[in-house]
Design brief:
Helix content: over 70%
Family: Belongs to the complex I subunit 2 family.
Radius of gyration: 20 Å
Low-confidence stretches: none
Largest sheet: none
EC number: 7.1.1.2
Structural class: mainly alpha
Keywords: Electron transport, Membrane, Mitochondrion, Mitochondrion inner membrane, NAD, Respiratory chain, Translocase, Transmembrane, Transmembrane helix, Transport, Ubiquinone
Order of helices and strands: HHHHHHHHHHHHHH
Shape: globular
Mean pLDDT: 91
Membrane topology: Multi-pass membrane protein
Protein name: NADH-ubiquinone oxidoreductase chain 2
Number of helices: 14
Length: 317
């Protein structure tokens, strides 16, 4: 929120350091490994951001966020923020870190942790380089789609989904920054709803979803709606930001970019449909190929799930 570069950088640092203890709880090897990976990437990106800030201050003699007038400083800053957000080609840490931590920490990592870098990107948006943004965005959307195709772990799928959504947000930040914020809010609502559903049913793999009807039948329908919204099907909420972004891109004659983004959304939709097929379309008494599991469902709070589902499904109508 700060207008001074040094304070904004401090905010990013505090944000990074504050999530590390959350990622390492409960304390085991996998959580610690993921937290260290996350810390190293974020620290590297923070140092690059600091370099860009100092270089910009050295050439322009001021420390305000809105005055990123040096082209090199802006490019370095964009790449560092892309690293923080997990945009391709700096996306490799996102699936690895998300897979290694519990569902609650994963939810915070893929939602709350995106707000700070996106807000900085939003504030420096007038001075950004369009070609670089398009390159980062299209590669993120395509790699986010391709990467998720052969995954069986739901956390990894949601991580690749996050990479693709970040691509959609980045492409429009120069043309219409308010659309980036809209997209981010809807993405956060849908991703939170999805993580809360998975946490409620204690599910982390696709094959465990085939017995979801045995655990909670309403949850299968809820997850199907949320996934279709994340994929961007009308008339669900997730269609709105995609529709508006494509419209803006076409108005500014970025037809090729719009086409690539729209096609990459189909890749995402494909792996969402795989999850839907496993969880919803293989209901009892049809034969499914996965082994039957006994479930012991611990009572968990579900008060947020209905609210988040309504936001992520019913906002467009």
């Amino acid at each position: 929120i700060s207008n001074h570069w040094l304070m904004a950088w401090m905010g990013l640092e505090i944000n990074t350091l504050a999530i590390i203890p959350m990622m390492t709880y409960p304390n085991n090897m996998r959580n610690t490994e993921s937290a260290i990976k996350y810390f190293l990437i974020q620290a590297t990106a923070s140092m690059i951001i600091m370099f860009a800030i100092i270089y910009n201050a050295w050439t322009t003699n001021q420390w305000t966020l809105s005055q990123m007038s040096n082209e090199w400083a802006t490019t370095i800053m964009t790449l560092a923020l892309a690293m923080k957000l997990g945009l391709a080609p700096f996306h490799f840490w996102v699936p690895e870190v998300t897979q290694g931590i519990p569902l609650t920490s994963g939810m915070i990592l893929l939602t709350w942790q995106k707000i700070a870098p996106t807000s900085i990107l939003y504030q420096i948006s007038p001075s950004l380089n369009m070609n670089l943004l398009v390159l980062l965005a299209v590669s993120s959307a395509l790699l986010g789609g391709w990467g998720g195709l052969n995954q069986t772990h739901l956390r990894k799928i949601l991580a690749y989904s996050s990479i693709a959504h970040m691509g959609w947000m980045t492409v429009i930040v120069l043309i219409n920054p308010s659309l980036t914020i809209l997209n981010l809010l809807i993405y956060i609502a849908a991703t939170m709803a999805m993580f809360l559903c998975l946490n409620f049913t204690s599910t982390t793999k696709i094959n465990a979803l085939s017995n979801l009807w045995n655990k909670s039948t309403p949850m299968t329908v809820t997850m199907m709606i949320i996934l279709l919204s994340l994929g961007g099907l009308p008339p669900l909420t997730g269609f709105m930001p995609k529709w508006l972004i494509l419209q803006e891109l076409i108005i500014y004659n970025n037809i090729a970019t719009a086409m690539l983004l729209a096609l990459s959304a189909l890749l995402n939709l494909f792996f969402y449909m795989r999850i839907i097929y496993t969880s919803t379309l293989t209901m009892f008494p049809s034969n499914n190929t996965s082994k039957f599991q006994w479930f012991h469902t611990s009572p968990k709070s579900t008060s947020l799930i209905p609210l988040m589902t309504i936001i992520s499904a019913m906002l467009l109508p």
